[in-house]
Amino acid sequence: MPKVSLTHFEASMLFALLTSIVLGIVSRRSDRERLMYGLYCFGCFVFAMFALSWLMYLGHG
After folding, report:
1. Measured between alpha carbons, how far is 41 from 16 in angstroms, rounded to an integer?
2. What is the pLDDT of residues 5-44, one digit of tens each?
3. 31-60 and 8-27 are packed helices; what angle lies between their axes, rounded to 10 degrees?
C-alpha cells in the first residue's frame, strides 16, 4: 500500500469534503437538497478553517 503524505491544509480540505458528502447524503431527501446542503456544509467548513487559522495566527502574536 502506498504511503500517503498530506499537508495539514490538504488533510483539512479532505476532511471537509468527505464530511460534507456524508452530511449531505444522510440529512436530506431529494438529490438537489443533498447537493445544496453538501455544498453549504463544505463552504462552512472551509470558512471555519480559514477563520480559525487566522484567529490562531493573530492570537499567537
Report:
1. 8
2. 999 999 999 999 999 999 999 998 999 999 999 999 999 9
3. 150
The residue written with cell numbers 499567537 in the block is: 60
Whole-Å CA distances, 12 to 3, 5, 32, 49: 18, 13, 25, 8
Q: How far is CA 51 from CA 7, 39, 48, 54, 56, in A?
A: 18, 18, 5, 5, 9
**Domain extents in the chain:** 21-60
- Say what the pTM is: 0.86
Residue 1 has pLDDT above 90, yes or no: no
